[in-house]
Structures are given as C-alpha cells and as structure tokens.
Structures
1.
Amino acid sequence: MTRFFDDIAPVTFDPSADALAFRHYNADEMLGGKSMRDHLRFAVCYWHNFVWEGNDPFGGQTFQRPWFPADTMDQAKAKADVAFEMFRLLDVPFWCFHDHDIRPEGDSLAESHKRLNEMADYAMAKMQDGGPKLLWGTANMFSNRRYMSGASTNPDPDVFAYCASTVKACLDVTHRLGGENYVLWGGREGYETLLNTDLDRELHQMGRFLQMVVEYKHKIGFKGAILIEPKPQEPTKHQYDFDVATVYGFLKRFGLENEVKVNVEQGHAILAGHSFEHELAMARTLGIFGSIDMNRNDYQSGWDTDQFPNNVPEVALAYYEVLKAGGFTTGGTNFDAKLRRQSLDPMDLIAAHVGAMDVCARGLKAAHAMLEDDALEGPRRARYASWEKAGHLHPGKTLEDVAAYAEAAALNPQPVSGRQEILENIVNRYV
Ligand code: XLS
Ligand code: NI
Ligand code: NI
C-alpha cells in the first residue's frame, strides 16, 4: 500500500467538521428518487492528477512525485497504487484514463499493447477489490510526435493505420474493464494552416475512421457509448470537432448521428465562445448528450486552464440542462481538472476534488429544486403558450396559407417582455 497520502483519512460527509470533509455532497441523499451518487456519477481522471508534472510553457516540472518519471512498468504500477488510493479516499464511483496515462510506451506497437494489457489487468484487480468502475477509456493520439500532423487526419496513411491499431487496443481494454463509454478527443484532428491542408480529404479520413470505430464497437459487443469531445482549438489552431453543433453536422454527414454522442467540457465550451449550458442544451436538443468533463477556465487567460470548478451558479445551470436531458445514462461528471502548479502537496489533490464535488452537489441541488418548483419551466411555457393554441408549426399548411391568415386577420403583433432580469432573480434564489 502506498504511503503517498500518508495521514489523510477517507473523506466523509460532515457539514460540521473543522477538517476536510464533504459539506454538500452526501452520496446517499435522495433527490427526486435518485441518490446524489447516482445523479452525479463522479469520475476522477488519471492524466492531470498522476501524469502531469506541473510544467507550463515557461517552466518544467514542479511536482516531485515518487513515481516520476513513470517510464518503467514498476513505476507505472506505483503510480496506479497511488491513483487507486486516491479514488478510495474520495469514494468516487468512477475513473477515466488514456492508454498513455497508465502504461509507458514500448519500443514497438506490439510492446505498447502488451504493456497496456498488463496495466489493465493491474487496474482490474484493484477495481474488483472495491475500487471504482470505469466511466471511460480513451487513446492519447496527440502527445507523441508521430501525431504532430494529425491522428486519423494525418497526411500519412500509415499514421491512420497506427491509430486504428491504437484505438482497437484501447477499446478492447475499455470493454474488458467494463467501461461505460469510450471517448475520442481529437486534439490533433485539425490544422495549423490551411496553406498545407486538404480540408475535404482530412474530414473524409476522420469520418471513415469514426465509422470503423463504431463498426468495431458493435462487432465486439461493447454496449457503452462512443463519445466525441468537442473543442475549438488548442493544441491545433483549428480543431474539426469545434463545438457540439459542428460535431452534429459531421455525424449527420457520415451517418453516425444515432451512434455517437458528445462528452461536453466546460472549458472547451468557453473556448468556443459559448457557455457550458449552451453546449449542453444544444446536445440535448440534438439528441446527442452523453457525458461531461467538469472543470473551468480562467476567463481572462483564453486558455484551456482546466481548473477545478468553484462557481456554483454556473454549475447549477449546467446540471439544469443535464437534468432536463433526463440525467446521465452511461455518462457522468468527470473532473478533467488539474491543480495549479504551485499546489505541490498530496493534500492539494484531495482538497481540490472535495471542493469540486461539493460545488457540483450544490449546483445539482439548486438545479433539481428549480425543476421541482417549475421556477423556470413555468415562465418558459407561458412564453410559448400561444404556439400551443395555434397548433405546432402549421402542419399541412403552405407559406401562402399562413400569409393569407395574417392578411385576413390584419395582424399587428405586439412585443411582450422577455423578463430576463426577473428570471435571473429567480435563479439567484436557488444558488
Ligand atoms: C483536452 C481534453 C482531454 C480529453 C481526453 O483538452 O479535455 O483531456 O478529455 O483526451
Ligand atoms: Ni476533457
Ligand atoms: Ni480540455
């Protein structure tokens, strides 16, 4: 057993505690017939917590973890021991990983797969020994220099084939570990300059790749969801999976809109010039809502800063959309969030998650109460009530019919207040 978290006790729900405790996240508390645990379906990510060394564009490693550099299988196992120890302390129901997070890359593709499978077995034993379940697995096809010019969108077809082998291995492992989803975030699926890019060809490569992934998922009987994670840029100047609406158009084009859903990340929504709730509402409306990566960006920096969430009003509006979508099915709340590079201590890792889980719990409770009270839906229904009376979208009528109605009745519609401030006041009563 690891000594990394040495004197840190398992975190419990205790609103009166002086020490670190959950003050709002009470896993067994019921909200509308479902426990908070089942509503929120929290997951801890492997990469930011146990792989990232604290570097930024101007400086290198700040974290000195006993398992760094995890370039041997022994170190990878030491890292896994600490990761699962943290999952236990937080009592989270799920975790998430990239292949690259859990195993050091081998000298050959075959060796990399062998190591991945060995580490998956290592994780499986811990999962079966009271550990969390797997929310999703994914392949890192953006860090190594071979992906510099794209993964499935690379001008070199051998990179496409390398990616096919990588995703196949990673989907197999995700399936074997009982993963509830498989995520594709296309970090390098985009371009640096249109001057050297065949946009049409690259989009077809990406579409074909995704079709192959879906075909393979069905072949092996993977019941989980395939999720695309939209992001507009960073690391590429332009990423093809720009936002939820763009992804939907892409899925439609390749006949995949009923096969693939989205994993929506708060920070990516901000980078795309949207709010988190906009992206979630769009996913719900288009029928492709899957899961969320919960974090927040620094609004001044314009980067994907992946901070832990701490803004209850924002989080409440996000969960409002999740609840309106019917809640999570295979998805959950993955903290794709990292410490600031000065937060060196093991305790910082725990405190970050405890705070984030409490923020989410407060947001969820507020969202649930707003729905129970019909606080926003009532006024929204009232706003569209005349459409209900008029009948939906004039079925069977032509443009001429509707024009004739307007002219015969000499219509002169009068605007009514949108009541935005009143609605904002209502939200503020809940958060
Ligand atoms: C990066 C993405 C990444 C995905 C998984 O910005 O958020 O972490 O969630 O590849
Ligand atoms: Ni993410
Ligand atoms: Ni991100």
2.
Amino acid sequence: MLLGVNIDHIAVLREARQVDEPNVLEAALIVARNAEQITLHIREDRRHVKEHDLETILKHCKCPVNLECANDEAMLSLACEFAPHRVTLVPEKREELTTEGGLNLESKGILKAIDTLKSHDIEVSLFIDPNEASVKKAAALKADFVELHTGAYANLHSAFYTNILKTPYKIKELDLSRFELRSRLEKELERIKSSANLGLNLGLKIAAGHGLNYKNVEEIAKIQAICELNIGQSIVARAVFVGLEQAIKEMKALMNAS
Ligand code: PXP
C-alpha cells in the first residue's frame, strides 16, 4: 500500500511565526525519500501551504505530488498552471479547521473541472464520503481516483478505543454508549470496505484518508481494494518527537504489517 504524506501541518507551524522554519521543501524532500507521494492542500485563505511551496516542491522533488484543492475557478487555473501529477478535488469551507466531509458530486461545474484537469494531463481524484451513490457518481464522472473520507471512522475509533470522550476534546455527537459506538464503528468500516470494492469494480483507483493515525490505520490498510492512504496530522505530530523520517517509517511499517 502506498503512502502520501500530507505536509500542510509543517506549513501550519511555519505560519504560526511567519518565518521559514520548519522549511516545507526540506519536509517534502524527506517525504520523497521515505514515502510514495507528497500531498498538500492549497486553501483559498492560504492558511498553510502557498503557491511558492508547490512551485519549489515540483521543481526539486522527484516523487508524485497530489494537490488538494477546491473546485473553484482560481484554484483550477492554478492547478492547471502548475500541473502536478494529481489533483484531488475537496470541499472547502473557510470556517472549518479541516476538510469536514466528502465532495458534493452534484455541484455545479464538477464535470467541467474534471475534463479541464484531464486535458492538462493531470490525474483527477475526488474526495468522497464512503457510500454507494458517491462511488457510482464518481465513476460516471470518469474520475481516475476516489479518496474515501475516513474521518467518521477515525472519530468513532477514537471515541471507542481512547478516553477522548472524557477530555476537553470530546466529540460531542459521539457521546454514546460503548455498545452503540462499537456498532457504528463496525458499520463505518463496512461502508469503507464496500465502497472501496465497488469503486475498484467500476474501474476507479481507490485511496483513503483523513484522521488516520498510528492506532486506527491497520484496519484500513487491510482493505485490499485500497491502494493508497493520505495521512498528515498524525505523522507530523509524531515527527515532533521522533523526526519526520522515523514518523513516516513507523506509519509505513503499520500499513505494511496489515
Ligand atoms: N486527504 C484529504 C483529501 C484531506 O483533505 C486531508 C486533510 O487535509 C487528508 C487526507 C489528511 O488528513 P489528516 O491530516 O487528518 O491525516
């Protein structure tokens, strides 16, 4: 299974002081040596990575680059100008801390966006919720990839297996009995598996990501139909203590043990 490391949070740290440390290119070069893909999300508000990061990464790193961006005119023209290996279209809300759900595939202009990116020789992935309707629609739109949103799975896993519900970071909507949590977690994992299988049968390549960490990644990495995971927060958080190279190696070891 391939690993794309999302380096947005390296830039979050840099932007906290608006200096050039930690250096985003340095992080990207470490990812290029230890994983299979560099993933980054240029947001409308440029809160972390920016155009110049993408430009220098494309210039200096040999491994494929997966640019996540919203389906809007300015972002698409930026994507076509830089032409990374892949663009993953994601929903974006200014007020959210991170991408909260999958794309609305009925939204205006999605087909045109896919065609435009493909005409620039860019592979197109759609970040979708793991359900049958979204997978079928993504196949009908002729996307190359779908990335299944694992955020709901990650929240349920955390609520069931950790003490988060008793901490200030509790996930309010998951304040449920352990019986209910277990049942929802099993259902969510099943939804991801069946969406991945369906997508593969319909000719899509399947990635997954969001909220994956060292505790919950193994169940997802066992799903044969998924060929790639994109992981950011947990790897960058671990890197603070052990360094980025080691953090990536530990994640890859868990993925490949499955
Ligand atoms: N995949 C997509 C499409 C994302 O938007 C994100 C978050 O930017 C990730 C993966 C990585 O999520 P996390 O930082 O929770 O690992």
